[in-house]
Records
---
Amino acid sequence: MAKPDGLFREWSRRYLFEYLTALVLCIAASWVCIPLARAASSQSTRLSFLAAPTAAILIMTIVVFRHFRRVDEFLQRLMVNCFATAGAFTLVWTLSYGIFEIAGLPKISMWWAFGGAVLVWNLSMVRAIAAMRR
Amino acid sequence: MKNRVRELREARGWTQVEFGNQLHVSRQTVYAIESGMYDPSLPLALAIGKLFGEYVEEIFGVDSGHSRGGRVWKHKR
């Protein structure tokens, strides 16, 4: 049932709770499993340990998808716009940097692509939410 | 797209939150529709019409030929 302060706050509260729970699970799984994977002798054991954080990342994806299904059509459109902005930014900067790597710039980890996408996604969401608070 | 949502809502004495709760949409969405920032989908527009007891075309109308949701094409005769 909707609270008097509006559906947006209720949706946001549920999303934040689920997302933070999944994030804690992901951090805990990484904290435990990555050192174990590094210490493992065989490749199959190493992969088994590293599957645990991957499962937590899948849970985070499900949480985002659940939030997408929960919110109304306008907020869904905002979310899609923010994903698209992050995707376009990632395409442009990874392709550009890939070309610069040919010229001798250092090869960087894929974490940078992920970090850039998450940063732009969150900045787009903050901008969209700020625009709605007017 | 211009609309009469704010006028009709205020005439009934509903806040944006109360109106949004009846349609199961957020206050932010109500604000976006009223300000013309967002054109609702057909199901939502029909729900708004039903709630106000008016036809959709009496609530929503095309203005200068442009919409934030996309260009309104003028057909050649």
---
Amino acid sequence: MTTESSSVEALKDAFGGAILRTAVVCGDTIVYLAPDRAHEVLAWLKDTPDQAFNYLTDITAVEYRDPERPFEVVYQLRSLERFADLRLKIELDPQGELRVDSVYDLWRGADWLEREVFDMFGVAFTGHPDLRRILMWETYSEGHPLRKDFPLRGHLSRAEQVRRALSLKPEEHYSPEELELARKRHGRDETSGWVPPRGGGA
Amino acid sequence: MGVSQEDHALVSEISPNWVTTKLDYLVNLARTKSLWPMPFGTACCAIEFMATAASRYDLARFGMERMSFSPRQADVLICAGRLPFKLAPVIRRIWDQMPQPKWSISMGACASSGGIFDNYAMVQGIDTIIPVDVYVPGCPPRPEGLLYGILMLHKKISGESLLDDGLRQELMLRDDGLFLPPERVNELAEPFGNSVSQTRSG
């Protein structure tokens, strides 16, 4: 199947210049959006009855090794009614600020997807209610691991990495909701400061 | 062991003799035949560990009648699988909560050395976090491999003596927050084998 998605024509009619170009790769239609109007286009795709892309499959990002190529933020949409898929990309300048509008207001599922892209690539999502790291711990300071300038083994020495990891107090990074659940279940604060034992020889 | 320096000197003078060796034998027999494992399963090794515990291989034959899911009733910590830095404080706390006498088994390549995960997120061997008695190689080890490791641990325990008060000493984190000196951690975490030729970008 190498036919272009029917959404492309509708998008071009509705938005014209905001649709930079389109491509069909391995049967999948890819639409490149202008960064400043991407949120508008995504909202239209979700809310227009003919499109009805009501399911956000994934948000991810791509940085190419070739420094000439732009940085991409990728949205994979699906319409559960029409059994149709559409992939949209926003191209950003890897040297400039990596910032796009959050789509959390359109699909609530974007919450953790955008946090993951922020954690791994350092893309900031304007309008995200809780943009924290999600895979790495919140105080992780070595950068964004999936960027090409990130060394495979991290910036710090192994000893420093181990030292920082051992000094973590995991319960300090539970969300308020999780702590509330724990309190309700156990009737007391499970996380009142536990201090790791120190001293003695190794 | 609550043995004072003077008591120890006294005991060392008269030891080892018939009484202490028979007592050692009895105590070690009891300990080897009732090792309760604290399973710390994080990856595919845990599947092999479960197979080892199930009816075909049957850990119960070796006195490991029951998994001790509370570290406070456990004798041997079995780390089955890779350990990300995020879990380093967790395994350390579990180890600190286990009462003496206690032992640990590092099951599989990842727990023992980081295995194929020589990257920014993974502890390069749990021996940089807690003391390890037996390393079981394999990726993952077959149940026979783990059983062999457990039998090696039995052998090690059989050779222990009540007179050696260094054995049951609690090895805490040092003042700098590490378990081993930093240069030792770096040495243990050095790339080896195939990962030596992996590029470090940046």
---
Amino acid sequence: MPIDIRATAFEPYHEVQAYQKKMQAAGQYGATAVFVGTMRDFNEGDDVQGMELEHYPGMTENYLTSIGQEASKRWSIIDSLIIHRVGELRPDDPIVLVAVWSAHRKDAFEASRYLMEELKSKAPFWKKEFLADGHRWVEQNTPGR
Amino acid sequence: MVIQVRFFASLRERLELSDCSLAFEESITVEQVWSKVTNKEPLPANLLCAVNMEYVSLQQAVKAGDEVAFFPPVTGG
């Protein structure tokens, strides 16, 4: 159940495919739920030109590991993968990937939803947006439920 | 006793402080750490805090060697 904090751009669908090959679980999983969060070029009515993502090294990895373990207790999942960007991003850059493999779709859907909502509400990342006339910190995430 | 204190994101920029050490004699809480290192700056409404990289309440007591962190609501994902 790898957790990967990246300072450089990544291609989420390539990562899912590459990780799935390494898992050596062919035949065991019947469901793969994939969530990809991508940087928008607008927020709160303004054009956003770029973004900087800050995190708390160590606490971020600990927190994401703990929610991965919790998801494994609550649902019957075979494996999961979380990749999250930090550093400088441009619109259309992938920010986050959450992928969950399970035998049946219910576990994959519910566990991936749980991981994303926990990540959004508690993992220590912060977004700073760059606008035409300066920058601003995003104050809070929008509710996902 | 000495602890390390860290600030992140908008809070770090506003306070112009990313980290510092704090020495103290008697047992203190996270809230008292905030008060001492910020020179009694009012507590932000949505302040989050962690001790040794785990979320805690402001009433949590700190001990020698702890790393205390203060930060605003998180906005990842």
